[in-house]
Amino acid sequence: MQIGAGFDIISRMTNEFIRIAASVPRVKPGDVRSNADAVASMMDDAAAQGASLIVFPELALTGYTCADLFFHSPLLDEAESSLAALVKRSASHPATAFVVGLPVRAAGLLFNCAAVVSSGSIRGVVPKTYLPGSREFYEPRWFASAFDAPDLDSVTLAGFDVPFGRGLVFEDSTRSLSLGIEICEDMWAPEPPSAKLALGGANVIANPSASNELVGKTSYRRSLVLGQSARCHAAYVYAGAGVGESTTDAVFGGHAMIAENGSILAEGERFSRDGRTVFADFDPGFLAFERVQGTAWRAAAREAGQARRVSLCFDALPASGAIARPKDPHPFVPSDGAGRDARCEEILSIQATGLATRLDAIRCRDAVVGLSGGLDSALALLVAVEAFDRLGLDRKGVHVLTMPGFGTTGRTKGNAELLAEGLGLAIETIPIADAVRAHFSDIGHDEANRDITYENAQARMRTLVLMDRANQTNGIVVGTGDLSELALGWCTYNGDQMSMYGVNAGVPKTLVRHVVKWYAERRAGAESPAGRALLDILATPVSPELLPANADGTIAQETEDKVGPYELHDFFLYNFLRRGAPKEKILRLALAAFDGVYSMETVSKWLDIFFRRFFTQQFKRSAMPDGPKIGSVGLSPRGDWRMPSDASRSAFSSPCRP
């Protein structure tokens, strides 16, 4: 990964992100000096690029494949003296720690260990716990397990008397980086040491490893790293032995990975004949957020016991410029086509199953959908049709109403009609303009005054029509509002905010677009009437169409001109609710993700508006109808999000600047 690419902005927040690295040098079995030189060079380079932690492979100083040479003192002596030289060299990198593997003699035994070094000192030594001794692995022939020396809590190594044991947690002075170590096979065990280390406070797990390459093993190894990082709510740094190890009976590919809470942040190329380092910036604030809200985590922590804490002895972590982690501007939307298609199909299935279950439970055979010709109502109609098909009900039970008002354009009305007909449904047109004018007369509102009353009266009139039609058919009103609109409160209270089941309430706007596109292309067919209608709906500006159209009949009122780009708001929503990010961090992440798309002034403006609307509009979410949770972010007051409707937003109200 190239450091410095992308938007370069220095964070004002101390230790907002921490750079970590997995380095795989090319080693020569038994050539300790050459191996130490390779480690030293990569240590210098990674430290220069802002890495606070650098992890090298298992037994990197000697080579993992030395076999019976491990019995001989010249190899062990040279490993210890080379470590001493590396320790001295580390003094020139006072804000960086590194983890390197070597054999260590203690209490008449030989251990496969990882030494933690920083600021010119060895901070501790962690022995391997689980030693593989089958198939191509023979480690019990040479090494003792950590289990073999339960009372050994310190060793003398390279002139330092240092803590020794498998339960060590190494911390920087701010406690932003807390390091635990397990070695290779430890991760593959039924109860990996990393679980207790994480419960003891470690938010980074380092794994110096020497896992050989076999067909299919890479994906399994990756799944273990991902799974352990997720269970531990931790960053996981995996550095595997690479090319240069003996190929007598196995090949080592140098697999390097950095994961965070179940997601890969960086992964290196395997089988490189040169040394390689991968970097990533992990987010300690996010990991702390995950842990503090986890009830299972709190329960497990009570049983974990106390970790032995060791200082890393560097007082500050290096500030990084460009963020070295994936910069996804659309976190709700999978980036690859196959994954996106699978996500869209699953979303529709969840929505349709939720609606079908509700219809079946209340013995209802009719549903009413208000179809505007916009994205959200189109998706709600697709969900209703899918639910009826799954229940084996006649689609005639889906009652489609279009209710043109003062701002309805021919384009949206035509698309509503084409979509309904393409799905084999009748559509009923009930104009609301006259009814709204009568209402204006009743309350003494001047129609020329196109204020919030003018707009909301139309939304509430449509809801009144839908509710009464549902009563007539003994059906339920299917809600159309999506997750993004709920977050912003971009809905009329007791208007489009209300329904009897809100099928879109868990789907953010950026994902609504993809589900509709997927249905048009994969389910309906792009050239079918329904497909053509859906694709034109996707090309239509998002609008509530509550203000009169332009003179040429085009939409005059575009939602994103008023509330801002939905892709920004969905990015804000994800990072605020899913990752617990404060406002300034969200700004920095957005500037990196949307570099070249939006200016700092634009992002700051809409971020301020996001927080203002999110806090002031909670009362609408407190009264939202039932609806299925779709992803990891939800706003139901009965589920994910409980917030006072009159909560203060003082901590989020000041304009933020990086």
Describe the model.
The chain has 2 domains: 18-311, Nitrilase/N-carbamoyl-D-aminoacid amidohydrolase, CATH 3.60.110; 337-653, Rossmann fold. The protein starts with 17 loop residues before the first strand and ends in a 5-residue tail after the last helix. Helix 18 (583-593) packs across helix 19 (600-616). The model is unreliable at 1-14 (pLDDT under 50). With 658 residues, it is of the alpha/beta class. Helix content is 39%, strand content 16%.
Give the helices and strands, then pairings.
Layout: E1 18-24, H1 32-48, E2 53-55, H2 73-90, E3 97-106, E4 109-118, E5 121-127, E6 154-157, E7 160-163, E8 168-171, E9 178-181, H3 185-188, H4 193-199, E10 204-209, H5 217-231, E11 235-240, E12 256-260, E13 263-267, E14 276-282, H6 284-292, H7 295-303, E15 308-311, H8 337-361, E16 367-370, H9 375-391, E17 398-402, H10 410-422, E18 427-429, H11 433-443, H12 452-473, E19 476-479, H13 483-488, E20 501-502, H14 509-524, H15 529-538, H16 559-563, H17 566-578, H18 583-593, H19 600-616, H20 618-622, H21 650-653
Parallel strand pairs: 1-2, 2-3, 8-15, 9-10, 10-11, 16-17, 16-19, 17-18, 19-20
Antiparallel strand pairs: 1-14, 3-4, 4-5, 6-7, 8-9, 11-12, 12-13
